[in-house]
Predict the structure.
Amino acid sequence: MTLSNQRPHNLYSHPSLDRMAVKRRDQQFYAKRLYAGKTRLVPVWRGKVFVERMPEGARDAASPVYISPQVEWWPEYAASAPILLGEASGLAEVGDVDAVTYFAIDLSQIPDPEAFGPLRDLGVFVDLRRAGPIMDGAEAALLAYAKGMTAWHRQHKFCGVCGGPTAMREAGFVRACLDPNCTENGPTLHHPRTDPAVIMLVSDGDRCLLGRGKNFPEGMYSTLAGFVEPGESLEDAVAREIHEEVNVRVGNIRYHSSQPWPFPGSIMVGFYAEAETTDITIDPNEIADAGWYERDWLLERQHAHDEDNPAPFTLSRPGSIARRLIDDWLFKKA
């Protein structure tokens, strides 16, 4: 696997936060920092993130809204204790009370945020996929982090070993089974998980292979992708997924970059691959259409439509690693 010399920052990936892993077991630090003057709570509601209200159809910019831990109402509506995300790096040494510290808070127990006075006038909960691409990169990464962590807690309220209830530990980075007899060694400890998926652009000279998933909007094409299976390397997953979806064999598999994808808890690992065979046979259970597209045609035909192509031809949404793979190939940056 060839690693790129420069580390590109994809959307939701931004090294602006010190995650403070060394402080997660320090309960005194957690309690003190939670109510520090510069601490900010990052609200999440049923998987949606909290931003300033945007005019209908606005696509210019989105800004997150944080909550002060000093407000009195949030403990009543929090689904769990706040999760320590970290502090803004570069501002101070770890543990400095003057640093801005962020905690994620799950407010999913509020029935309707639009009817909840303390929140209604501050902002609105929206899908991160709508707000993220028009948000500052560091802020989008912070909200993705909060969304992913709160989703993991919602989905792991019970132990996967014995079925008993679990409780949050280590500032939100462990859920411990409460049954002391869960296993011979005592309670099971559960840790946040990320499901790896590979996403890849296949090329054959000056053309690339693009497909349209069954649930894609009409006219939108993208790279192929799929989850990594147990006992499989990333490169093996790339080759397998391409062969399963379009019956094409590939080689010269090269790493490009990765992207956190908290929908709900994946990481997309991007690759390029070169075709060794070019005849396409799609798996209709996975793919609605797939084909080879010339570089020049793609550069000229994006968003175009005519009698032969009544729906606009569009590529993956900006901000996705799929679009990054395509654009870097189109403009020969890969």
